[in-house]
Known about the structure:
- This protein is globular.
- The protein has helices at residues 14-25, 61-70, 85-99, 125-153, 181-191, 193-201, 219-224, 238-248, 254-257, 264-270; strands spanning 5-9, 29-34, 75-79, 104-107, 156-161, 206-212, 261-263.
- The protein is of the alpha/beta class.
- It is built from ten helices and seven strands.
- The longest helix has 29 residues, at 125-153.
- Strand 1, helix 1 and strand 2 (29-34) form a beta-alpha-beta unit.
- 40% of the residues lie in helices and 13% in strands.
Amino acid sequence: MTTPVALVTGASRGIGKAIAIHLARAGYDVAILARTINDGEAREHSSTVARSDVSALPGSLATTAALIRAEQRAALVVSGDLLDRASIGAAAATVLERMGRVDVLVNNGRYVGPGHMDRFRDTPTDLLDAHLEANVMAPLVLTRLVLPQMIERGDGLIANVTSGVAWMEPTAPAGEGGWGLGYAISKGALHRVAGVLHAELHPLGIACVNVEPGYVATERIAQDMARFGYDAAAGAPPDAIGAAVAWLAQAGRAHDWSGKVFDAQQVCAREQLLPGFVPVVSPG
């Protein structure tokens, strides 16, 4: 029996890391894509143009890969920058060459950097472009690259990690508990993808699902976001999202959710995928 393969972006930490590990537990070999290969690498991750922050964030693809292998599944580390289409194209080619297939694509990675928590008047236009490139165009590029072999088999799942900012209105300005325009317009655009692709691809056996994670206590929330009004202690554990996405990817369940919003926290609680888990209320 052929082992199914998942490709997860933004898998060096947080939600992507948890999804990758839970998919491994569900029997998937997992290719993981991000910029941070080894722990301690410096990357710009300040959310505002007012300051720079290149301090190391916890996590790396190397760490995630070790945890996947601890589940007795194969892990393939591929470097990729969502702002560099050539790099993600090369990454997808490597995955298909080395692992032979992609059964599940999880578009979880997103733009991290200035403009995320800046007000519109303070946000350079090129940072709005960066949000759209990383959060919308990069997932579409990857989707196009893995689709042919999914269509040939007549089966596959495209899971796009959406956000409540795609439909919610902030109750405060960016930097004071709200969010920047780049994040909102890019997640809004990505949110429209699943429904359109569902109409086109579901007859061919491909499920396209919006995964709504809700408010999650990731490493970056804990390290970076308190100054912007976000309390990591109030968030759900990333494992709740990982367990829910792994559940979605099994037993043909994704086809029931194709073109819809999959509320990961609610499903995790309903299906009792994480003992004692209770969904949290998203800020905003």
